[in-house]
Design a protein that fits this description.
Layout lengths: L1 H42 L18 E4 L5 E5 L3 E2 L9 H11 L11 H13 L10 H10 L6 H17 L2 H11 L6 E2 L1 H9 L8 H8 L14 H17 L5 H8 L17 H15 L9 E4 L3 H22 L6 E2 L13 E8 L3 E5 L5 E5 L9 E3 L2 E2 L14 E7 L5 E4 L5 E7 L6 E5 L11 H4 L9 H10 L7 E4 L18 E4 H6 L3 H11 L1 H11 L21 H12 L10 E5 L5 E4 L7 H6 L1 H20 L6 E9 L4 E10 L32 H17 L14 E6 L5 E8 L2 E8 L12 H16 L22 E6 L2 E6 L69
Helix pairs in contact: 2-8, 2-9, 4-5, 4-6, 8-9, 9-10, 12-22, 14-16, 14-21
């Protein structure tokens, strides 16, 4: 009886257990979909719209070109070139399916088998050849989610995948995938990867190359054929095997693909000419206005700068800096007994290690391993430097200059010989403008961008010294003075201040003209006393100087305020163009990746009437030139694209050389050689008249006086040009801390500055006529070659009336408007204007003749020394809308 009861109870328990298990199974079966859909309802309001991802953004580096279409700078490493489904080769689709999701066209966005594989890989750290996510899930993650590994993100990914499958077709999902997936080396999407790794278009890829690209999504760094070729090759061959296994390719295709080499042909754009100061100020200006995305937006920007003029300017500045070093002596080796490979080349100065010292020469080894010899003629200048005004005797043998194991700098001379050099402590800058339009033709920010990125042409606020005097004298001419007006050059005292002339002499009563071309300080001070400091500051403000940087004392006459080289060039352009204030600019056109014109500069002209009269003829000529260019491209000799790239190897430190490469466009139609600006023909619009700030007579008279500065004044060395149609002014500040020359021809205004970044004396005889003027001469000699003789005209064709300007300035406080209709400033501050952030949108169109020492007098107070201030000048895209400040 007891045994029967026990058996009955056991059966009852087992039946109850079975029933309970069945009930639990039914509950679980109902709970999973209920829970899934409940979770879906909970997450649904937070899920993004699928329609947001249907348009993929193009991304390509920002390219910067000179006016003559030389590539001078490039920024951005991201490549993203969207394709449509019809543009995807079938073999490439199959390669990705074999590698990532062979059941893509069968599942509904979520693969249970794949999820199991993902869990297994996550738990065991198994590095299987295939991943756990479907292609749909990868699209959801790449477009909307982060790569963090959390349960919440994975659930969101699953729900997004299902939502995408409901709203998009398989073709659309696959297209989104191949456009967004990261494939290493900055390439996003298959077209970008084909360009990056093989310099090919998609249809020209081989099966082996397609399989290589398909192997990258799993781990772009691990399977990168650039960094890990053997591992990439293993994965590529596995994918090729999978393609054969799945029936995508036959055995012969499999064997051919597996036996193919890695075969990379990397996309690497090479600059025609490296001009980093210009490239960086362009990049910064665009990013400041339109946001960081402009760097990868595929824009091609053409500047106003002529590449040859820029090279002439850089060569002239470098020559001037080397000449200064030669005058002041050898500061010794850069280092001793260190690996020469640790030192990079700056400008044309190569590092070298001294290996043998002879009596009148020495031998050295370059980083490339090349052995060179420096003869006595290349080192005889190197007397020992002691201070700016003291130096030792000239050497008599090489051992007095260098020793074995010294790290020195060498530079190759024009005759091919090597010369001892040193990285200059002194700096220089040059700005050259078209005085009719304000277009920047050349701009040098310093010795070498890689040595110092500070752009002194735009950011270097320095005392202008005597180059400000013509602006003061112009105020006097505007008030009725004439060039032959008599002004006293006798001693003067203002309070405790007793200014002197640089030579300590006094010439008595002299003409205003003579006072300026001899740069007499006391004449300048008396003129400023007579005309008024306030009126002079107002006119200097109209010239383009910053009024807040100008003193309110008589020292203004001697240039104790602060100005940048760009501002002084803007001011002197007024004398060259007959009295008009132009606005400097440097961006001429902006094109998108498809070479569509987004922006065309249309600056105000000093003589808009002259420009507009010739506009139809100019536009017709541009069309004719464009058609001629197209015919040249279609000629039999143009079946292959040939380019010349000037490349600089910082690792081997070799000379930049011309490399001729012929590209077969039928295969390499995505190569960097073919990926260049192909601008349509430009057609200009009528120009507006630049405002007149000087009477035509005044502009002509001042230009004539400044011509006398060169013919018989402090700039007489410029007579070496052999021209009588140039004018200018030397400038040297107190203790020779700044040396200037501001000069012009009717077709060119150029300002040169030299000095130390931290203001200190350059030496007692380093006047503007000694340090800066030779640089100007070298540059202008090249610019005026074959330019006919011409001069500023008294009969100004613009026929514009003198007017007060309305100046709009962007400041941190907002937009400040200076309205000078009544000779007074009024400021209206509004909310700061925010730069517009757009994706692929067009920008919005805006008496010792040579002794000019100090020219501010030995007793002059050196005020507002300035140095290299962080305040920056502004360069506009258009004459009205100013760009944000340039970079520090």
């Amino acid at each position: 009886m007891t045994q029967k009861n026990t058996t009955a109870r056991l059966l009852h328990f087992l039946v109850g257990l079975v029933i309970a298990c069945l009930a639990l199974a039914i509950i679980l079966a109902l709970a999973v979909p209920i829970g899934f859909y409940g979770m879906a309802m909970y997450l649904s309001p937070t899920l993004p719209s699928i329609q947001e991802i249907k348009t993929a953004n193009l991304e390509m580096p920002l390219q910067i070109y000179s006016q003559d279409d030389k590539l001078i700078g490039q920024y951005g490493n991201r490549l993203s070139l969207p394709v449509t489904f019809d543009e995807i080769p079938e073999d490439l689709t199959n390669a990705f399916l074999a590698a990532e999701d062979s059941s893509f066209f069968q599942h509904s966005g979520i693969s249970i088998k794949g999820l199991g594989r993902a869990v297994t890989e996550a738990v065991t750290d198994d590095e299987g050849q295939t991943g756990g996510s479907t292609i749909t899930m990868q699209v959801a993650k790449n477009y909307f989610l982060s790569s963090e590994r959390t349960l919440n993100r994975k659930l969101t990914e699953l729900f997004l995948a299902r939502k995408m499958e409901d709203e998009l077709s398989k073709d659309e999902i696959l297209t989104l995938y191949v456009n967004k997936i990261y494939l290493g080396e900055g390439a996003y999407g298959i077209r970008a990867a084909a360009k990056k790794y093989y310099s090919k278009s998609l249809e020209n890829l081989t099966i082996a190359e397609m399989a290589m690209l398909a192997g990258l999504p799993k781990a772009p760094s691990k399977y990168n054929p650039v960094a890990n070729p053997s591992r990439a090759l293993t994965r590529r061959n596995w994918i090729i095997g999978r393609m054969h296994e799945l029936g995508y390719i036959d055995a012969a295709q499999q064997d051919e693909a597996i036996n193919s080499p890695v075969g990379l042909n990397l996309y690497q754009e090479k600059l025609d000419v490296n001009m980093p100061y210009l490239a960086e100020m362009t990049r910064y200006a665009l990013v400041s206005r339109y946001g960081e995305q402009v760097v990868n937006g595929g824009w091609r920007v053409r500047l106003t700068i002529d590449s040859q003029a820029q090279q002439d300017a850089e060569a002239a500045v470098l020559k001037g800096l080397i000449a200064y070093d030669h005058r002041h002596g050898w500061r010794g080796p850069e280092a001793v007994d260190e690996p020469v490979e640790n030192f990079r080349r700056y400008s044309s100065m190569y590092p070298a290690k001294v290996t043998k010292v002879n009596s009148r020469s020495f031998e050295a080894t370059m980083p490339s391993g090349e052995n060179v010899t420096v003869n006595w003629s290349g080192m005889s200048w190197a007397r020992k430097y002691i201070s700016a005004d003291r130096f030792g005797h000239l050497p008599s043998n090489a051992s007095q200059v260098v020793s074995e194991k010294d790290i020195v700098r060498l530079i190759k001379t024009d005759n091919g010989n090597w010369q001892l050099a040193q990285i200059p402590d002194i700096q220089g800058s040059l700005v050259s403008l078209n005085p009719d339009t304000g277009a920047v033709r050349a701009l040098v920010g310093g010795f070498d961008f890689n040595h110092s990125k500070f752009n002194r042409a735009l950011q270097g606020w320095r005392q202008p010294g005597s180059i400000i005097k013509p602006l003061i004298y112009t105020t006097a001419l505007e008030k009725g003075y004439r060039p032959d007006s008599i002004v006293s050059d006798r001693p003067i005292q203002v309070g405790d201040w007793k200014p002197n002339n640089s030579d300590g002499r006094f010439l008595g009563d002299i003409t205003l003209r003579r006072g300026l071309y001899l740069s007499r300080n006391l004449v300048s001070i008396r003129l400023l006393q007579a005309i008024g400091i306030s009126d002079s500051r107002d006119l200097l403000d109209q010239f383009g100087l910053d009024k807040e940087k100008l003193p309110t004392t008589l020292s203004l006459a001697l240039g104790t305020g602060q100005a940048t080289p760009l501002q002084m060039a803007t001011a002197y352009a007024t004398f060259a163009n007959g009295g008009h204030r132009i606005q400097p600019y440097f961006i001429e056109q902006i094109y998108n990746y498809d070479n569509d014109l987004l922006f065309q500069a249309n600056p105000q002209q000093a003589c808009a009437l002259c420009f507009n009269d010739q506009l139809d003829e100019l536009n017709a000529q541009l069309i004719a030139d464009g058609q001629e260019g197209e015919e040249d491209k279609d000629s039999p000799d143009s079946e292959q694209l040939t380019t010349t790239d000037a490349t600089e190897s910082s690792e081997s430190e070799k000379d930049s050389e011309q490399v001729n490469s012929t590209v077969d466009l039928s295969v390499y139609d995505a190569s960097p050689t073919a990926d260049r600006l192909k601008a349509p023909v430009v057609q200009y619009l009528p120009a507006a008249q630049a405002p007149r700030i000087l009477k035509p007579r005044v502009a002509y008279e001042m230009a004539d006086i400044l011509r006398d500065v060169i013919q018989r004044g402090t700039g007489v060395r410029a007579k070496a040009l052999g021209r009588n149609d140039v004018g200018g002014k030397t400038g040297t500040t107190n203790e020779a801390k700044d040396a200037w020359f501001a000069g012009f021809h009717p077709t060119n205004t150029t300002v040169v500055w030299m000095g130390f970044d931290q203001p200190s004396t350059m030496g007692r005889r380093e006047y503007g006529g000694v340090a800066a003027l030779p640089v100007w001469i070298d540059f202008m000699r090249a610019q005026l070659k074959n330019t006919p003789n011409q001069w500023v005209s008294l009969d100004n064709r613009s026929k514009s009336e003198k007017q007060r300007q309305r100046i709009i300035e962007m400041t941190d406080a907002g937009v400040v408007t200076s309205d000078e209709e009544n000779g007074a400033n009024s400021s209206n501050t509004s909310k700061p204007a925010k730069p517009k952030v757009q994706q692929r949108k067009a920008p919005e169109p805006e008496p010792s003749v040579e002794n000019d020492a100090n020219e501010s007098g030995s007793n002059t107070t050196n005020r507002n020394n300035g140095g290299s201030s962080t305040r920056q000048n502004q360069l506009p895209l258009t004459p009205v809308e100013q760009m944000p400040p340039m970079p520090e």
